[in-house]
Amino acid sequence: MTSISTSQMARRLMVALDYPDAEAARGLIRQLEGIPCYMKVGMQLYYQAGPEFVRELKSLGYSVFLDLKMHDIPNTVKGGANSIAKLGVDMFNVHAAGGVKMMESAIQGVEEALASDASLNRPLVIAVTQLTSTDQETMNGEIGIPGSVEKTVVRYAKLAAGAGLDGVVASPLEAEKIKAACGNGFRTVTPGIRPAGSAADDQSRTKTPGQAIAGGSDYIVVGRPITASADPREAAQRILEEMGQGRNAAEADRT
Ligand SMILES: O=c1ccn([C@@H]2O[C@H](COP(=O)(O)O)[C@@H](O)[C@H]2O)c(=O)[nH]1
């Protein structure tokens, strides 16, 4: 890879492996070889390639975010979290809309897994707030939640923090307010990342990689701007450069 600071930024880049099968995902992984990014496995890939593929990513040395967004009764989520923790992922998520008891059950499921096997590492457990595809109008008029998206996201973040979770998935527009409400150590994982000039696709609440890092995102999640690019490696490297510029701008502001 390139410089130390680029590889530090790479650990904050989560590449969304939204592919139909393991072989397609391996194609991208080969192109990104040497970039120490997080790999995010979502529903499309996991429902096809399953735990085996997660183990494969771990054996290649990647940090893995298993993005299955669990939302069910507390007992079921506890069982799901227990199985996920045994799989050895580094991060997974539940929906904050499931409520505090459900989120606490996810933590219990993890704790029971760790108690049963001392070799396991504790994964970060985070909560989805409002999907980054949801805009103000949809949230108020269609879903029926009143008020601003930002207020709702911060409310969910506070519930997640109270339940003992490690952070939230939110848009980069809300990262700063989440940090102010829940503390700097509470992680912000932000999809809805679009380099300047690229298509928003189905995302509504977006920022560029540099703006997201400058605005308090701990991790940025990027799928199509890399995976649909004619040159994914070059796209990822450009994003890492922008992230570095965003961090430098934020540091300059602080001094
Ligand atoms: O609110 C959310 C939660 C999860 N995601 C996931 O992030 C990636 C984004 O992919 P792009 O291609 O960069 O849009 C995708 O896997 C989503 O499932 C999200 O976008 N928003």
From TrEMBL:
<keyword id="KW-0456">Lyase</keyword>
<dbReference type="InterPro" id="IPR001754">
    <property type="entry name" value="OMPdeCOase_dom"/>
</dbReference>
<feature type="domain" description="Orotidine 5'-phosphate decarboxylase">
    <location>
        <begin position="12"/>
        <end position="239"/>
    </location>
</feature>
<feature type="binding site">
    <location>
        <position position="224"/>
    </location>
    <ligand>
        <name>substrate</name>
    </ligand>
</feature>
<protein>
    <recommendedName>
        <fullName>Orotidine 5'-phosphate decarboxylase</fullName>
        <ecNumber>4.1.1.23</ecNumber>
    </recommendedName>
</protein>
<feature type="binding site">
    <location>
        <position position="40"/>
    </location>
    <ligand>
        <name>substrate</name>
    </ligand>
</feature>
<dbReference type="InterPro" id="IPR013785">
    <property type="entry name" value="Aldolase_TIM"/>
</dbReference>
<comment type="subunit">
    <text>Homodimer.</text>
</comment>
<feature type="binding site">
    <location>
        <position position="132"/>
    </location>
    <ligand>
        <name>substrate</name>
    </ligand>
</feature>
<dbReference type="GO" id="GO:0004590">
    <property type="term" value="F:orotidine-5'-phosphate decarboxylase activity"/>
</dbReference>
<keyword id="KW-0665">Pyrimidine biosynthesis</keyword>
<comment type="similarity">
    <text>Belongs to the OMP decarboxylase family. Type 1 subfamily.</text>
</comment>
<feature type="binding site">
    <location>
        <position position="194"/>
    </location>
    <ligand>
        <name>substrate</name>
    </ligand>
</feature>
<dbReference type="InterPro" id="IPR014732">
    <property type="entry name" value="OMPdecase"/>
</dbReference>
<keyword id="KW-0210">Decarboxylase</keyword>
<feature type="binding site">
    <location>
        <position position="203"/>
    </location>
    <ligand>
        <name>substrate</name>
    </ligand>
</feature>
<feature type="binding site">
    <location>
        <position position="18"/>
    </location>
    <ligand>
        <name>substrate</name>
    </ligand>
</feature>
<feature type="binding site">
    <location>
        <begin position="67"/>
        <end position="76"/>
    </location>
    <ligand>
        <name>substrate</name>
    </ligand>
</feature>
<feature type="region of interest" description="Disordered">
    <location>
        <begin position="193"/>
        <end position="212"/>
    </location>
</feature>
<dbReference type="InterPro" id="IPR018089">
    <property type="entry name" value="OMPdecase_AS"/>
</dbReference>
<dbReference type="InterPro" id="IPR047596">
    <property type="entry name" value="OMPdecase_bac"/>
</dbReference>
<comment type="function">
    <text>Catalyzes the decarboxylation of orotidine 5'-monophosphate (OMP) to uridine 5'-monophosphate (UMP).</text>
</comment>
<comment type="pathway">
    <text>Pyrimidine metabolism; UMP biosynthesis via de novo pathway; UMP from orotate: step 2/2.</text>
</comment>
<feature type="active site" description="Proton donor">
    <location>
        <position position="69"/>
    </location>
</feature>
<dbReference type="Pfam" id="PF00215">
    <property type="entry name" value="OMPdecase"/>
</dbReference>
<feature type="binding site">
    <location>
        <position position="223"/>
    </location>
    <ligand>
        <name>substrate</name>
    </ligand>
</feature>
<dbReference type="InterPro" id="IPR011060">
    <property type="entry name" value="RibuloseP-bd_barrel"/>
</dbReference>
